[in-house]
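Honest question from a wet-lab person: if I give you the sequences of every part of a complex, can you actually get the arrangement of the whole thing, not just the pieces? Trying it with mine:
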Amino acid sequence: MATEESNKRGGVKIDALHLKLGALSGVVKDALLFSWEVACQGTPLENSRLVIEEVPVVVHCADCNADRMLDAINNFFCPVCNQPTNEILQGKELEVTALEILDDTNPLS
Amino acid sequence: MTQTRLVEVRQNVLKQNDLLARDLRLRFQAANVFVVSFVSSPGSGKTAFLEKTLTMLREKYRVAALVGDLATANDAARLARAEVPVKQITTGTICHLEAQMVSDALEDWNICELDFLFIENVGNLVCPSSYDLGEALRVVLMSTTEGEDKPLKYPTIFNTADSAVITKMDLAEAVEFDLKTARESIQAVRPAMQVFEVSSKTGLGMDEWLEFLQSRLKAKAETRPSASA
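Yes, you can. This is the full assembly:
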């Protein structure tokens, strides 16, 4: 994905990749950071930074009629009224949000 | 002049898989086949449960299965005993199935001739949770020998599943399995999820499970827009 973006811009080097990582994404932040350097070798991302924004799980509680953040992913109860809730509003993200691109050609392009 | 620019992308990392899974789901709907996937840890009894399910369903329905494994075709060989079409997907070093693998495996099958298609994922409670396979129903299995707190330890996979099946109920007493705690663990990670208790060996609970599958198949047929519409 990042290589594609780089190619679109004439193979520019990517300095950083910003990633949204939900608590329910099934992906572990530390594992991503650990493997990042190796995964980037030989790509426009070589020596880049991986900037991870962790996204907690937010559910909608019908009883409170409010959105509530959960402090654990194995406890789907409203932290205020303790009713079970399944309506997940966020927390499943595994999304590249932005790339930082080193631009040494034309700053206006 | 060298400067850094921030370029917004906003792309789901698993977009490719999600798009393919969406296509698969549309194909399954068009073919009027109800697709069920099984996920669980290795050794929880997916294959035995699938064999029992296939054997009992094949009397009334046209059924088939895809089974994923890293290295062997043992499961497919075992499931051949159910005398229904079974195909092994050998993933090599990949610890989960992806939509592309399902699509490839179905290439020479006419899914229009099926009522139910079962997909047994690789035994793994982590990675399969992130990959949509286009299934209509994802079932997570846990066995009585694994301990009651499996859902609390692997909440993501339980959260992405639609139903849960507790297998090896014939061993529950011997291993002092606490059903109430297990059910509470499941409800804590996925409130209101339907739970079945079965023994593939004795057949306990199979009728309720099959009834559920049949009701889902029927519900699907009723919600399907008629061909003339």
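Two things worth pointing out. The first strand of chain A starts at residue 14 and ends at 22. DSSP finds two helices and six strands in chain A.
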